[in-house]
Design goal:
- By secondary structure, this protein is of the alpha/beta class.
- It has a single domain (2-130), classed as 3-Layer(aba) Sandwich (Rossmann fold), CATH 3.40.50.360.
- Helix content is 31%, strand content 25%.
- It has four helices and five strands; from the N terminus they run βαββαβαβα.
- The protein has helices spanning 17-28, 69-76, 96-109, 123-130; strands spanning 2-8, 32-37, 51-56, 84-90, 113-120.
- Strands 2-1-3-4-5 form a five-stranded parallel sheet, sandwiched between helices.
- Helix 2 (69-76) links the parallel strand 3 (51-56) and strand 4.
- Helix 1 (17-28) packs parallel to helix 4 (123-130).
Length: 135
């Protein structure tokens, strides 16, 4: 299965370790995985994937807000309606559950079917979850 892992960290930069671990877990199950950066990509190639996993984190410790790059990127990817997807948030801060709810709201607004959501506690946890996607 072709899977896109959309990385939307709070600040620009390389994808965090937990995003790479999630992708590594998926690849170990035989999937073709591409990491897509929400800060630099426009979302036009997302409809080509069979499954989309979105990974983000809270903007600050005391906030449930997510990166503003993510809604812009998903809005640019027309044809996401009905696409199976997963929503993941890195544990951190006081309002992790609110961050996850905000992420799911943004994804569902674009018509994506979120069939899995979870909080990632670290790279090893992310890799273990990646091995269960598409199994």
């Amino acid at each position: 299965m072709r899977i896109a892992v959309v990385s939307a960290p709070a600040a620009r930069g390389t994808p965090p370790g937990y995003v790479k671990s999630l992708a590594r877990g998926m690849e170990s199950m035989g999937h073709r995985v591409d990491i897509v950066d929400a800060w630099t990509e426009d979302g036009l190639r997302l409809p080509a994937y069979e499954y989309i996993a979105v990974v983000t984190e809270a903007v600050s410790f005391f906030s449930g807000k997510i990166s503003e790059a993510l809604p812009k990127m998903l809005a640019g990817g027309s044809g996401l309606g009905g696409k199976k997807s997963a929503a993941f948030v890195k544990k951190g801060g006081l309002f992790t559950a609110r961050s996850l709810a905000n992420l799911m709201r943004v994804m569902e607004k674009e018509g994506m079917l979120v069939n899995w959501s979870d909080v990632l506690f670290g790279p090893s946890h992310a890799e273990a979850i990646g091995k269960r996607i598409g199994a």
